[in-house]
Amino acid sequence: MKVEKRYIDESYINKNPSWHSEDAIWKASQVSSILKDHQINPASICEVGCGSGDILRHLHQLYPNTHLVGYDISPQAAEFWKSDAINNTKHI
């Protein structure tokens, strides 16, 4: 698997300093809508490429008892997680 350099060096964060956090509420609502449409009450949710982690943060509000895990390859994305002390959520 080829990893794009922009996610490892600082070029992506330089062009996208918010890491698209402003879209997180909408994206979380889309995930929630799909889960509700299919009558799924998840025990866990995994987001691959979680970036800032804001989608998981909003999903936690909707599913407070759900175990949440976010993965991202960017060392810069990990900076967003330092202030993220949400129960049931882990970023890797």
Textual characterization of the structure:
Helices cover 35% and strands 14% of the residues. It has 92 residues and is of the alpha/beta class. It has a three-stranded parallel sheet with strand order 1-2-3, with helices on one face. Helix 4 links the parallel strand 2 and strand 3 (89-91). Helix 2 packs across helix 3. The relative contact order is 0.19. The model has no long low-confidence stretch (mean pLDDT 89).
Radius of gyration: 14 Å
Largest sheet: 3 strands, parallel
Shape by Cα distribution? elongated
Structural class: alpha/beta
- The CA-CA distance between the termini, in Å, is 18 Å
Question: For the residues shown, what is the average pLDDT?
Answer: 89
Give the low-confidence spans: none
Count of runs of 4 or more consecutive helical residues:
4
Q: How many extended strands?
A: 3
Helix content: 25-40%
The side-by-side strand order for the widest beta sheet comes to: 1-2-3
Strand content: 5-15%
| SSE pattern | HHEHEHE
